[in-house]
Amino acid sequence: MKVAVVNPVSSGKCLIKSLEDIGATVMKIYEDHLKPDHGDFFVFSNFEETVAHLKIHGIKSIINGSEFGTFITDKLNYLMGFAGNDFFKVQSRINKYEMFKQLQKSDLKCAQSFTIDSYDELESLHQKINFPMFIKPVDSAGSDGCKRVNDFNELSASFKQIHGCYNLLGKKNSSILIQEFIEGEQFIVNSVSLGGKHLISEVYRVRIDQHNGVPIYRSIITLDMPAEGEVYSHITDYVKKCLTSLGVAEGAAHSELRLTNTGPCLIEVNSRIMGPVLDADAFYCAFGYSQPSLLCESIIHPEIFIRRLDYSVSTPKKHFSMVFLRCRVKGIISNRKGLENIRRLPGYHCIRNLPKIGYQSVNPLLTTGDFGIVYFCHEDRVLLEQSLSILHDMEDENIIFGMNYYE
Predict the structure, then answer these.
(1) Are strands 360-361 and 263-270 parallel, antiparallel or unpaired?
(2) Which terminus of the chain, N or C, has fewer Cβ atoms within 10 Å?
(3) DSSP H or E stretch at residue 359
(4) What gap in Å lies between CA 13 and CA 8, rounded to an integer?
(5) What is 112-180's CATH superfamily?
């Protein structure tokens, strides 16, 4: 089967590998500013030319390869007449403000949100909002531009800092989202959909720290099933309703939410696989599949995927965790001597996406996996949690990477 993947950067590279492993022939489509330096690919310039190219090459399915490809993927599927997400709701999947408006129409709990385009609009909100609030670009990723603000002075300063700047998606921050801060534990729900039915692939509890109001992802760990079966059902039932409301009918989604005193409350849905790096072997060790492999199966072997929908809960074979390695200061990496101590921790599986010696960290607070991602997998949850605690202490003490610091 011939499949096209749009903007396969970040974890999209893992998706390409999964497609090739299952026997698909893959066409890579990149926007010009995202294209690699070499390789066989098609550069997107406009929809008419791209549709003609897809038809000539007999492409049968189009997949979103990253947070950069949502709109192009959805429109190409619509123009080609392929099964895809509801194109008439595409703005609710790429614009966070439109996302919350759509959820409100469906009577689904979500945070109070405002979108503003100018400082004058910000001042007009002064009497309408209650702090703390959360400010972020309407369209970005990787925690770029995100910050908790506790009063109007902090909100004003943060707005001026990000408004008009270009974000991680290469887009200008012309609109800024001001959102009610959601109190509660944070969770990730990954899924793959087929024909409007949603299969939950993984659910994680998230450890997030804050640095001057900026959320910092530290690690994620699978729920302790079946002990947390009630929590699992509560949040996954809610996420499925959100996916349906937002027009997600086909393909992968990565949803983030918080569990409040009054129930689950969505942070955002991303209609793509989780990023930034997914090691297939680590996921297979814990689950017997990965989210990319399930996505490929839904396209290449839908008859097998459909049988999975009969199982309401997927319990991992082992407890599983991902750690987004951190070094909180800017600097240039001089050595990676501390990695050997990580590799000795119980449950250690592998490290991926390690930075090279000489790598210069510009913004170490972003959730882009720049310092590497460590995977853990173990039958004993207590032992695994102890390993995570030790690793986070090593990060906080700055003993993993040797750094030449600069301000």
Answers:
(1) unpaired
(2) C
(3) none
(4) 6
(5) ATP-grasp fold, A domain (3.30.1490.20)
Query: Strand 251-260 relative to strand 319-324: parallel, antiparallel, unpaired?
Result: unpaired
pLDDT in tens, the chain (407 residues): 999 999 999 899 999 999 999 999 999 999 999 999 999 999 999 999 999 999 999 999 999 999 999 999 999 999 999 999 999 999 999 988 899 999 999 999 988 888 888 888 888 877 778 889 888 887 766 567 788 899 989 888 988 888 888 876 677 888 888 888 889 999 999 999 999 999 999 999 999 988 777 788 899 999 999 899 999 999 999 999 999 999 999 999 999 999 999 999 999 999 999 988 899 999 999 999 999 999 999 999 999 999 999 876 678 999 999 999 988 777 899 999 999 999 999 999 999 999 999 998 776 666 667 899 999 999 999 999 999 999 999 999 989 998 886 54
For tokens 């800092």, name the residue.
Answer: 161
Calpha distance 279→348 (Å, rounded): 13
Give CA 200 to chain center in angstroms.
15
Q: Which CATH number fits domain 185-405: 3.40.50.300, 2.170.150.70, 3.30.470.20, 1.10.10.10?
A: 3.30.470.20
d(CA 390, CA 92) in angstroms, rounded, equals 40
* 212-216 contact pairs (CB < 8 A, 24+): 212/147, 213/147, 213/148, 213/149, 213/150, 213/154, 213/158, 214/143, 214/146, 214/147, 214/148, 214/365, 215/143, 215/146, 215/148, 216/143, 216/326, 216/328, 216/365, 216/367
CA dihedral 366, 371, 377, 382 (to 10 degrees): -70
Instruction: Note the CATH architecture for domain 2-89.
Output: 3-Layer(aba) Sandwich (3.40)
CA distance 10 to 66: 7
Distance of CA 199 to the CA centre of its chain: 17
Alpha carbon separation from 301 to 218, 291, 293, 297, 308 (Å, rounded): 35, 15, 11, 5, 12
What is the spatial distance between Cα 250 and Cα 61, in angstroms, rounded to a whole number? Answer: 11
